[in-house]
């Protein structure tokens, strides 16, 4: 990758877009054929095209926290397979320790790309499945103390061997999961998507020739590395540190510390997690491939150049973490809910990067997805509702925090209310924004999002992964904190608060309501410097109350006929 680029620049751009288009076709195939809502509607999956060595050269627009980990998984797979690879094979794996996976619900299905009898690359998919067994429905056991409690562990195996389905493996998977129809259906969707990617690459090889495509892939990675190095050179050299926290697990939580040092050099970056908590006896440990992927996602998001989404970018980033820590566990450390740690690692990195590039980083947001899981039995068959509920960003130098958007680490989506109610014995009682919740600042943090679920079956089990109650989203440069999160169950006349991370599921009865409020975004800058007209606009839109405008921003709003206006004199007095 250090040699001179040989592909014509115009042709390289054409082929780059062709690669990206094929990767997006792989993505669309999964969306159109997946069975479960967590894959089809929440979009909790990822796709990529990789070369024969496992290096990515194109990605679907999916989950950044997945995508940076394909290299580790594929290189481990290649070591396991040796040379036993056939054009009609499909491979499957999920285990963090035996297969360099992320957590057990995230199952890789990959297919080799051959051309004229030679292995040229891999068409790859990674999808979060509705269930892979274990002690908790949905396989997101926060209270697990070892990985064997989390579900069905799959090393590198052939799902299809030379065109023949491995029926033994399909039966084993079906027997060990609570929702075999959904899991089998999603696996077949992944297979169809892999085939789409392989066909697309074969067509490109036929059209342009082997040498042109292979050289273009090499040049594209080199180009990405050069662009990334140039972007890093624009960041002031130095060591930038930040510490963040996960609230902890269960009724008596102990905070989990994430500590990072970002060392920026002339053309590369070292991200070191020394000082983070040791791995815990709970499902939040982040496997090292996942930790690396989160670092790549955070750093990539503060770069302004149109860097190709390929392996070359990652060669400028050296990620380090203590072995046996919460960000690099060793077997048998559980990691089923490692997603919350991934989100918090990205937030922690943003806290460090804000010191280096304050104009490119927003204040802290809602902290990634809340993962509610409601499971039970309906008409004698088990059901599992699970979604990745996304929320809100913090404010930035030039903009208020956005609402109803995914965390930067996961381009995922909230499941539409109609889809939930049509599929499960659940009714969404309330879904919307919470006024006066955004962190005050010169730019206001995004509002909290409230979502409330009523159970309509006789009984159900609730499991929740959320965060940011004891440690609310921080503001930047004088901006205030966002509002903390809230979990509550209302059962008849009884109402009780739940921990942010449940160590074990909670039983719900018919008509019980689970009420969740996500954390809001932090503010950016001094709230008393906020434009008074912007405060008035927020009041008119119902985002800020009249009392909140005065209390948080020093802006007095009065009624004038049937309209509202700013009392400039009173506002000046308060702000003075």
Give your account of this protein's structure:
The chain is an alpha+beta fold and 576 residues long. The chain folds into three domains: 9-224, no CATH class; 362-526, no CATH class; 531-575, no CATH class. 31% of the residues lie in helices and 23% in strands. It contains 14 helices and 22 strands. It has helices at 9-33, 37-40, 64-67, 70-81, 167-176, 180-208, 210-233, 288-301, 311-314, 339-356, 417-423, 532-541, 546-553, 568-575; strands at residues 45-51, 56-59, 90-93, 106-115, 118-128, 157-161, 164-165, 238-246, 256-264, 269-272, 317-320, 371-378, 381-386, 426-434, 448-455, 459-465, 486-491, 494-497, 506-509, 513-517, 557-560, 563-566. The protein has a seven-stranded antiparallel beta sheet. Strands 14-15-20-17-18 form a five-stranded antiparallel beta sheet, covered by helices on one side. A hairpin with a 2-residue loop joins β17 (486-491) and β18 (494-497). The longest helix is centred in the middle third of the chain and has 29 residues, at 180-208. The termini are far apart. The mean pLDDT is 95.
Task: Show the helix and strand layout.
Blueprint: H1 9-33, H2 37-40, E1 45-51, E2 56-59, H3 64-67, H4 70-81, E3 90-93, E4 106-115, E5 118-128, E6 157-161, E7 164-165, H5 167-176, H6 180-208, H7 210-233, E8 238-246, E9 256-264, E10 269-272, H8 288-301, H9 311-314, E11 317-320, H10 339-356, E12 371-378, E13 381-386, H11 417-423, E14 426-434, E15 448-455, E16 459-465, E17 486-491, E18 494-497, E19 506-509, E20 513-517, H12 532-541, H13 546-553, E21 557-560, E22 563-566, H14 568-575
Parallel strand pairs: 10-11
Antiparallel strand pairs: 1-2, 1-5, 3-4, 3-6, 4-5, 6-7, 8-9, 9-10, 12-13, 12-16, 14-15, 15-20, 16-19, 17-18, 17-20, 21-22
Helix pairs in contact: 1-6, 5-6, 6-7, 8-10
């Amino acid at each position: 990758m250090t040699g001179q680029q040989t592909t014509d620049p115009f042709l390289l751009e054409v082929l780059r877009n062709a690669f990206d288009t094929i990767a997006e076709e792989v993505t669309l195939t999964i969306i159109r054929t997946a069975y479960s809502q967590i894959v089809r509607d929440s979009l909790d999956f990822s796709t990529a095209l990789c070369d024969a060595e496992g290096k990515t050269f194109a990605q679907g627009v999916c989950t950044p926290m997945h995508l940076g980990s394909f290299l580790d998984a594929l290189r481990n797979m290649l070591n396991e397979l040796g040379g036993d690879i056939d054009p009609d094979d499909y491979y499957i794996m999920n285990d963090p320790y035996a297969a360099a996976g992320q957590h057990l619900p995230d199952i890789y299905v990959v297919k080799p790309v051959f051309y004229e009898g030679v292995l040229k690359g891999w068409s790859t998919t990674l999808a979060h499945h509705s269930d892979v067994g274990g002690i908790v429905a949905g396989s997101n056991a926060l209270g697990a103390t070892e990985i064997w409690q989390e579900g069905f562990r799959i090393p590198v195996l052939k799902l299809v061997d030379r065109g023949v389905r491995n029926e033994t493996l399909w039966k084993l998977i079906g027997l060990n999961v609570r929702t075999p129809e959904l899991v089998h259906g999603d696996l077949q969707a992944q297979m169809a998507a892999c085939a789409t990617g392989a066909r697309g690459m074969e067509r490109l090889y036929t059209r342009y020739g082997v040498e042109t495509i292979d050289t273009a892939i090499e040049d594209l990675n080199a180009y990405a590395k050069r662009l990334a190095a140039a972007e890093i050179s624009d960041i002031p050299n130095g060591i930038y540190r930040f510490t963040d926290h996960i609230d902890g697990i269960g009724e008596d939580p102990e905070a989990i510390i994430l500590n990072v040092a970002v060392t920026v050099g002339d053309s590369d970056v070292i991200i070191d997690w020394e000082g983070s908590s040791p791995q815990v006896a709970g499902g939040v440990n982040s496997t090292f491939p996942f930790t690396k992927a989160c670092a790549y996602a955070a750093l990539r998001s503060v770069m302004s150049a149109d860097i190709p989404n390929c392996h070359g970018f990652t060669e400028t980033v050296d990620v380090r973490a203590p072995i046996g820590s919460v960000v690099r566990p060793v077997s048998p450390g559980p990691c089923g809910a490692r997603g919350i740690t991934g989100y918090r690692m990205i937030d922690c990195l943003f806290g460090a990067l804000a010191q280096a590039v304050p104009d490119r980083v927003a204040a802290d947001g809602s902290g990634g997805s809340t993962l509610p899981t409601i499971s039970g039995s309906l008409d004698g068959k088990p059901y599992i509702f699970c979604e990745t509920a996304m929320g809100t960003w913090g404010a930035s130098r030039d903009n208020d925090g956005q609402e109803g958007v995914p965390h930067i680490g996961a381009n995922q989506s909230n499941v539409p209310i109609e889809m939930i109610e049509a599929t499960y014995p659940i009714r969404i009682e309330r879904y919307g924004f919470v006024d006066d919740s955004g962190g005050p600042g010169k730019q206001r943090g995004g509002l909290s999002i409230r979502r409330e679920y009523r159970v309509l079956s006789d009984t159900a089990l609730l499991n929740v992964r959320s965060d940011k109650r004891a440690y609310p989203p921080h503001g930047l440069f004088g901006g205030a904190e966002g509002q903390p999160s809230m979990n509550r169950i209302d059962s008849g006349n009884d109402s009780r608060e739940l921990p942010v991370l449940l160590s074990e599921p909670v039983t719900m009865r018919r008509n019980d309501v689970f009420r969740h409020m996500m954390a809001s975004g932090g503010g950016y800058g001094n709230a008393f410097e906020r434009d008074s007209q912007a405060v008035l606009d927020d009041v008119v839109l119902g985002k800020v109350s009249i009392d909140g405008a005065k209390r948080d921003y020093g802006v007095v709003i009065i009624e004038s006929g049937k309209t509202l206006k700013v009392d400039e004199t009173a506002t000046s007095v308060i702000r003075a």
